[in-house]
Amino acid sequence: MTGQLTLREGWLTWTPGRGLTAEPEPVPDGPLLVADSWLVRDGRVRGYGRHRERFLHACAESGGPGPRRLVRFWQDVTAALPRTGAWFPRVELTAESLELRLRLRHAPPLGTEIRVWSVGQPDLRTAPRRKGPDLDILARVRGRAVEEGAQEGVLVDPSGVVLESATASVLWWEGDTLCQPPPRLPLLPGVTAALIQERALHTGIRTAHRERTLPELADREVWLVNALHGIRPVTGWIGEQTTTAGPAVRAEEWRKWLDGLTEPLPNNTGNN
Question: pLDDT digit of tens for each residue in the chain (272 aa)?
Fold first, then answer.
């Protein structure tokens, strides 16, 4: 099925030949094998091709449908995405039936800063490098942080080294060096984090992979970055540990640059 199917929130299930069809809320059949999501504002998206490649690669690794079906699914998703309004769609590959779905969701209010719980949470994910299987675990981490008066919680490894937050990659500045955790750690490959790192490299800004605990991020400019909110500087650490957030002196300029990367959704769905 081609063209935009609906501008209402809900689930669309994909089958070969029929394409995407609206369905009632599905009965959960276990954790998702793969999921991916991004922000669409008036038909414009940032890093759309990168989200496509991450989703298709993760599906292939998970024993999902063959590449032709995955490409056709993505073409139908592209045609169905709304071209007006603010949306936060999610594509899914289910665990039991290997069903491909598109979930249309209105985008929540976007944030420009964030308060983070200063108590690192143990990493209980089963597939940290793939988005989908651990969404429930991450939701509980974030929920625990909200109970403590923050907006986000941070995962740490057994030695206390910062990995990422429940919904975002963690970047920070040490002097003029833009830092992030080493890639050998169990990290989701963030699309937004990759765009930021590439800009730094192309403009001559020094980058580094460093292991840091939460107390070692005190007084530094720390960012949580993801596809929904873009760059959100940490303006407060909430918790028993006294941690001071560093001034966000670079965030505004980088946010403007990142917002300028959005591009129209492809019209030629065969070449997205």
Answer: 444 544 679 999 999 989 999 988 877 667 899 999 999 999 999 999 999 999 999 999 999 999 999 999 999 999 999 999 999 999 999 988 899 999 999 999 999 999 999 999 999 999 999 999 999 999 999 999 999 999 999 999 999 999 999 999 999 999 999 999 999 999 999 999 999 999 999 999 999 999 999 999 999 999 999 999 999 999 999 986 668 999 999 999 999 999 999 999 998 544 44
d(CA 74, CA 52): 7
132: nearest Cα among 73, 68, 61, 214: 61
Beta bridge partners of 115: 236
Identify which of 35, 26, 25 has the alpha carbon closest to the alpha carbon of residue 134: 35
User: What is the side-by-side order of every strand in the sheet holding 40-41?
Assistant: 86-87, 40-41, 44-45, 263-264
Distance of CA 205 to the CA centre of its chain: 24
Q: Is 131 helix (H, G, I), strand (E, B) or coil?
A: coil
Q: What is the pTM of this model?
A: 0.93
d(C-alpha 239, C-alpha 88), whole Å: 30
Cα–Cα distance between 213 and 234 in angstroms, integer? 15
